[in-house]
Design goal:
By secondary structure, this protein is an all-alpha fold. It is built from eleven helices and three strands; from the N terminus they run αβααβαααβααααα. Helix 9 packs antiparallel against helix 10. The N and C termini lie far apart (about 55 Å).
């Protein structure tokens, strides 16, 4: 490649030459993307149409579906093109746009799950104050806060990495990632590393610990309550717990993978682990909430 190509494009090197198998892989991923879009649209449509579902818990579920559509649309169209292409070059502006979309999706997801934990905590531990604390205005403010904070964090990430002089253009992933670009820097990246670590702690670990704390409080309340009350709490909280566990595992796999040299891991395994957090939560969330919550399930079946 000439110098202009190296300076203006990144090369996504994790795509494996699978020959004619690229066509079945393309069809499978296209069907997967179609399912994500249709399933999350159904959840959003049901919640927006049914007045009985205009409650905080269901509104936050709709926020998860909006976020799933946003994140998967930032990933799948480009990924599908790359599956059928011999060249996996992506321009720097397009790469930073993809980083912005995927990272804001990831940040939104964990923050919304944290807000949903707060909603469940108030509903179980302070039921008499629930409707006073969780008004529609509060729901809107919390959802807006998630999006604004996520945008701020990723803009900081991007603005710091875009200024770095780079000594290469090979990104060992199938999509653009900020840390992989920082590793290409020709100069020391101590400031980037410190800021990145602090923002990661604030974005990932604080919501994580808060979710664990709220569920500890919920468990304590349930321990002292009747079996009927425990059943109702389990019914409303279980889908959220499942979503949280799935996202935590998939997010951890991607973070752990970024700290290892992908060449030391089986290529297919490395690609699978890196794709989990942008594929599995958007697929699993509509299934978990659509099948586990009877109110949503009943309205979906009636609509279908």
């Amino acid at each position: 490649m000439d110098n202009n190509t190296v300076s203006f494009y990144f090369n996504l090197t994790m795509f494996v030459n699978i020959g004619h198998y690229c066509y079945p892989a393309f069809v499978f991923c296209l069907l997967l993307y179609s399912f994500i879009v249709s399933a999350n649209l159904v959840i959003m449509l049901v919640i927006s149409r049914e007045r009985t579902l205009h409650e905080p818990m269901y509104m936050f579920i709709a926020c998860l579906s909006v976020n799933a559509l946003y994140g998967s649309t930032g990933f799948f169209p480009r990924f599908l093109m790359d599956l059928l292409s011999d060249s996996h070059l992506i321009s720097r502006p397009a790469c930073y746009i993809q980083i912005y979309v995927i990272y804001t999706y990831a940040s939104n997801e964990i923050i919304i799950l944290g807000i949903m934990a707060y909603d469940r905590y108030v509903a179980v531990c302070h039921p008499l104050h629930y409707h006073r604390k969780m008004t529609s205005k509060t729901v809107f403010k919390l959802a807006a806060m998630a999006w604004i904070y996520s945008a701020f964090v990723v803009i900081v990430f991007n603005s710091m990495s875009v200024r770095l002089p780079l000594c290469g253009n090979k990104i060992q992933k199938v999509f653009c990632a900020n840390w992989n670009i920082v590793k290409l820097s020709c100069v020391a990246t101590v400031v980037n590393n410190i800021v990145g670590m602090l923002l990661t702690i604030a974005t990932v670990f604080l919501p994580l610990f808060y979710i664990l704390y709220t569920y500890l409080r919920i468990i304590i309340v349930c321990w002292k309550s009747s079996a009927e009350f425990k059943g109702k709490v389990l019914e409303s909280c279980l889908p959220h717990v499942i979503s949280f566990v799935i996202y935590s595992i998939t997010g951890f796999c991607d973070i752990a993978l970024s700290r290892y040299d992908p060449e030391e891991i089986n290529t297919f395994m490395a690609v699978f682990l890196s794709l989990e957090f942008v594929v599995i939560p958007p697929v699993s969330n509509p299934l978990v909430y659509g099948l586990k919550l009877p109110e949503i399930r009943r309205h979906i079946l009636r609509m279908l």
